Amino acid sequence: MAELRRLELVSSTHEKQESVVQTIAVLGVGRVGSAVARTALAAGYDTRVAGSGAAEDIELLAEIVIPGARAMTATDAVSDADLVVVAVPLSKYRSVDASMLAGKTVVDAMNYWPPVDGQIADFEEDIASTSEVVSRYFSGSRVVKTLNHIGYHELEDDGAPSGTAGRRALAIASDDEAAAAAVQDVLDRFGFDTVYAGPLATGRAFEPGTAIFNGAFSQNDLLRELELNLHPTH
Amino acid sequence: MHEASPLGMELGVYSFGDTQRNADGTLRATAEAIANLHEAIVLADAVGLDYFGVGEHHTVDMPASSPGAMVAAAAGATQQIRLGSSVTVLSTDDPVRVFQQFATADAISGGRVEITAGRGSSVESYPLFGYELSDHDQLYAEKLDLLMTLNSGERTSWCGSVRSGIDDLVVVPRPVQGSLPIWLGTGGSAPSTVRAGRLGLPVSYGIIGGIPARFGRLADLYRATAQRSGHHGPNIKVSAGTFGLIAPTKKDAVDRFYPGWRNLQLLMTQRRHWPEPERARYEEQTHAPFAYYVGDPDDVAERIIDLYRHLGHMRHFFQMDLGGLPHEHFLEAITLLGTEVKPRVQRLIDRL
Ligand SMILES: NC(=O)c1ccc[n+]([C@@H]2O[C@H](COP(=O)([O-])OP(=O)(O)OC[C@H]3O[C@@H](n4cnc5c(N)ncnc54)[C@H](OP(=O)(O)O)[C@@H]3O)[C@@H](O)[C@H]2O)c1
Predict the structure, then answer these.
(1) Cis? peptide before A195, omega within 30° of 0
(2) I need a labelling partner for A154 at 20 to 30 A (CA). Which of B43, B130, B281, B303 fits?
(3) Do B224 and A116 touch (CB under 8 A)?
(4) What is the mean pLDDT of residues B40-68?
(5) A187 Cβ below 6 A of ligand 1
(6) Mutation choice for ligand 1 from A73, A88, A108, CB with most ligand atoms inside 8 A
């Protein structure tokens, strides 16, 4: 289990104070973005949401479907956010301005699913995880892959308080351990255990078509699934 | 917020066609599936159901690829039921042809035909008709605009980028109803809901899993958006399509629906990497508050009304024939929906 860790281990090794997230910006107010934003609000975060256009375009939407969230333009939403969740269709990731995300911790919740979304040239090259391509584009950001392998409706149904027996766990991959640790704390408040899989490339273990993507696992089971997928010879 | 029409709740069925299976699991003829579907629509009309929708899929197991042709045939063979597509994959079709086909069926039916336009859950039509999935957004937006333009008057002028412009050309026949009801069909995303509200189109939610009551906030968003955009009146309405099967007992219904549901899941596991089906997960879905309206007439009627409290929908229609559901079970469920569920729903609505 060299690379697989429960994130508790990671977070205990760095300055917790620095990583405390208070403000979350969610880019995309579709199925996933709306559910993430509602979950963030329920967990007590100051939550901003943005679509591809003007704030007015999504004001009513936010008021009714994500009550409590502040509708903004993407630029305004991310400007003072501690964490940014990108939940736009993967085919549109390049429409998100990378420069405004420089220096930010960015959660990539997007998936590549050619049978449903069509083929996207960027993701047809030989890569381990789609998040590596996304991270190359958001080159100034600390990209963390997670939230992609839980159904949008499950996000609000499957969460449970810390310590609940059999609590569902989510996998996290990032080249930046401190960013991963910050996201781990957020997911804990969202209602989920976590397992740190390793660098972004390990994100392939929980992309569409994998057992982890298709299932729901407690922390120990997720650890085992990741181990099976990433180190099959062990 | 609930715009209960004086008529109460419309009930109906939708189908993509369902190819029957031989005892060894192999698929029977797709032509038989189309004939079965036609028979089911005629029965739905006879037992007093309000709506039958024909979806568009292009697979051997779900061969109803041409809703317009299906609806036209049914238009000539039925008396009172409303007929429509659920949904027409508008992005990969020509809106002029779609309009003409449905307007023709409307003429034959004496004004009972509707169109529901949507992305649909089928992606097979893209390569089949030579479109790129990645162009979907623009195809859909422009073609919906053209379809609405065609619906608004006999002569059409339109220009856009996804097909050649139309300069003051006549499109006939004109609908008996004046215009065809055009619904926007969506799986329940907030942006699509906003689109329907802004355009003033009725919205049809396909609810294939999760907790249907959650769609209540989308319906609120839809109505608020329509109002803010200046759209009022009878066209601002919501319908819901869900999985469902009715049998004399809940146990029969759950047992009858399962094998077909499992076959469908297995196909989707192969095609789209869906998870392997599990009976326990299935059974959970067949009970409130979840999304499969599989039960006896009392159970299904109560759950329709429960959803009505959240959604205020005026029509609820069921996809019943999946994965080789025996045709006689399909027909029995249609009969029970018309003769047993419908009066119960009406009684419950009257009490609200
Ligand atoms: N289905 C699931 O359960 C699930 C679970 C986890 C992850 N995912 C992944 O999550 C991603 C989003 O899926 P979805 O179903 O939520 O999509 P969706 O319902 O189509 O919503 C996409 C949203 O992104 C917005 N958007 C597009 N470009 C934008 C930009 N540049 N800046 C800000 N917002 C922008 C759209 O707003 P406009 O209307 O203004 O364009 C829309 O609100 C996909 O990659 C999907 O694979 C899905």
Answers:
(1) no
(2) B303
(3) no
(4) 97
(5) no
(6) A88
